[in-house]
Write a structure and sequence with these properties.
Elements lengths: L9 H11 L4 E6 L5 E5 H17 L7 E5 L4 H13 L2 E4 L6 H10 L2 E7 L3 H8 L7 E5 L9 H7 L15 E7 L7 E6 H15 L6 E4 L6 H14 L2 E5 L7 H8 L3 E5 H10 L12 E5 L4 H10 L4 E5 L9 E2 L13 E2 L5 E4 L12 E6 L14 H7 E2 L2 E10 L5 E6 L4 E3 L2 E3 L1 H9 L4 E11 L3 E10 L7 H9 L10 E4 L13 H15 L1
Parallel strand pairs: 1-10, 3-4, 3-5, 5-6, 9-10, 9-11, 11-12, 12-13, 24-25
Antiparallel strand pairs: 1-2, 7-8, 13-14, 14-15, 16-17, 17-19, 18-19, 19-20, 21-22, 23-24
Length: 524
């Protein structure tokens, strides 16, 4: 394919900025422990080279995977960039994962090395137990600067010159695990070319340049932070400030302190900011654009403009598209109540169940023109069947339901896949159901997402108890907490005698959900 990124790889951009603007600040990191660190482009490139040599010293080579089980931090960014210089594959994991969840990803990804943070060490140790492939568990600390840490000492012993490795645009640099309707997370492979394609398109569509400063507070193990913050900033040469996690009470202060001009968020953090500053004056910042995914209400939009006055841009993408194919344009009329228009560089349409494009105002599935590995994922790791279902006849089938209006704008209607999205996190109903059904009192379980004014959706579980058995909501929550991350645990439980099913026995979750919403509306 004649890609707009040519034969460049991610290190191409880092090395260009390091040579052309060596003394310009490239990166600032800030931990919850109060540790702040600054690096110029040349300092960052030298440190990434040392990290790359360290990865090679661990016995990893081209195509070998390693798990990065750390929060947003300098260490995360170094490991991801260094993977790009070695041909190894960084596999970011959610720091909130339980040992069971982490073990699955470590085993499925064939990770040979696991890097974790001190506070997550006990979970990581349990997850690595019995693994025949993990050669080493490395523990880093976010409570100290890197130069005085054990990890930093190991890096300092390495050469700061570029390693003599051969890496190509279609090499996989990252693998993100995303939950699906099959229950088990799937490993979405992300290549240098796809990251850079999405980064180039995003930078051009948002006019992101080397004088901008991007504040990253979304979790870096998630595609959102990587694909509409980290990769575009690297492409454009924009400075980055990476903070450990989003906090409504600290976000605008961090933006002001770093002089950030850009930030990427979800609708849920925007609502949290509105709630936090409802009775107080917000700090002034230099933010001139905040990109976000998932809808706000018209009233929330009005409140945001009145309270903060920071321009918003809604966009849409998924881990598998890598980039953001739909964005509300900066030029001309802007409607942030929609998903946007196809961005230059992507072709998007809505099709019916047979794959035929539908007319305006007719609902269907969003599909994106795909050149696997070049502008979208090449597929799911070790899952050719799911890959063949995802990419068909040159198009990536998203599973998202939408409608295109007469102005060409796309409007989200829901998901064909029964994914629950809570505050930007994807939750598989089947994964939660399997945990609930493992409880001795539960005969069957069905899990759905219901509207939540702050976090987009919350998790509601319907349970059928075994005859003569029962369990309280608190008992079931505690049971789920043994194997599921906190954000996946149902917040509410409803008891049923039986579930509505199709003729082939499939539980009709949509009927359960609709019945619950109808009862809720009737109660008001």
């Amino acid at each position: 394919m004649n890609s707009l990124t040519g034969n460049r790889i991610i290190p191409t951009y880092l090395e260009f900025h390091a040579s052309s603007r060596p003394n310009v600040t490239a990166l600032t990191t800030e931990t919850n422990a109060g540790v702040r660190q600054w690096f110029t482009w040349s300092e960052l490139d030298a440190l990434v080279n040392q990290t790359a040599h360290w990865i090679l010293e661990q016995g990893l080579g081209r195509g070998d995977s390693f798990a990065v089980h750390v929060p947003n931090s300098l260490e995360f960014f170094l490991l991801w960039l260094a993977a790009g210089k070695t041909g190894a594959v960084a596999v970011p994991t959610d720091p909130a994962s339980t040992a069971a969840e982490l073990r699955y990803i470590i085993e499925h990804s064939d990770a040979r090395l696991v890097v974790t943070e001190q506070r997550k060490a006990s979970v990581a140790r349990v997850a690595c137990e019995g693994s025949g492939k993990v050669q080493r568990l490395v523990i880093v600390s976010l409570a100290t600067s890197i130069e005085v840490s054990d990890f930093g000492t190991e890096l300092a012993a390495q050469s700061s010159t570029r390693p003599a490795t051969e890496v190509t645009p279609l090499d996989v640099i990252g693998m993100l695990y995303t939950s699906g309707t099959t229950g088990r997370p799937k490993g979405v492979m992300l290549t240098h070319a796809a990251y850079l394609y999405g980064g180039e398109v995003f930078a051009r569509a948002t006019r992101l340049g080397h004088t901008d400063h991007h504040l990253i507070s979304l979790p870096l193990h998630h595609a959102a932070a990587q694909c509409h913050a980290m990769a575009p900033s690297l492409v454009a040469g924009a400075a980055l400030t990476i903070v450990e996690r989003f906090s409504a009470s600290r976000f605008l202060e961090q933006a002001a302190r770093s002089n950030a001009t850009r930030a990427a968020l979800f609708a849920a953090p925007l609502r949290m900011l509105l709630r936090h500053y409802v009775d107080s004056v917000a700090p002034h910042t230099a933010l001139d654009l905040v990109t976000f995914a998932q809808n706000l209400t018209a009233e929330e939009m009005r409140q945001w403009e009145a309270k903060f006055g920071i321009p918003l841009m809604q966009l849409w993408g998924m881990t598998e598209t890598v980039g953001l194919p739909l964005m509300v344009p900066l030029n001309g009329p802007r409607d942030n109540m929609c998903m946007g228009l196809p961005v230059a560089g992507y072709e998007v349409k809505i099709v019916d169940s047979g794959g035929t494009e539908v007319a305006d105002n007719v609902p269907g599935e969003i599909v994106v023109r795909a050149w696997p590995g070049w502008n979208v994922t090449p597929g799911y790791y070790k899952n050719p069947q799911a890959t063949s279902e995802l990419i068909r006849n040159g198009w990536l089938y998203t599973g998202d339901r939408a409608v295109r209006d007469v102005r060409g704008q796309f409007h989200f209607l829901g998901r064909f896949k029964e994914m629950i999205k809570r505050a930007g996190e994807n939750i598989s109903p089947l994964e939660v159901e399997e945990v609930l059904k493992a409880h001795c009192a539960v005969r069957d379980a069905a899990v759905v997402g219901v509207p939540d004014p702050l976090r987009d959706e919350r998790v509601l579980a319907f349970v059928v108890f075994r005859e003569g058995c029962s369990a309280s909501a608190n008992e079931l929550k505690a049971w789920c907490g043994r194997t599921l991350a906190t954000f996946k645990i149902p917040e509410e439980f409803e008891t049923c005698k039986e579930f509505p099913r199709t003729s082939v026995g499939k539980v009709q979750r949509h009927i359960l959900r609709r019945s619950w919403l109808d009862r809720l509306d009737g109660g008001h």
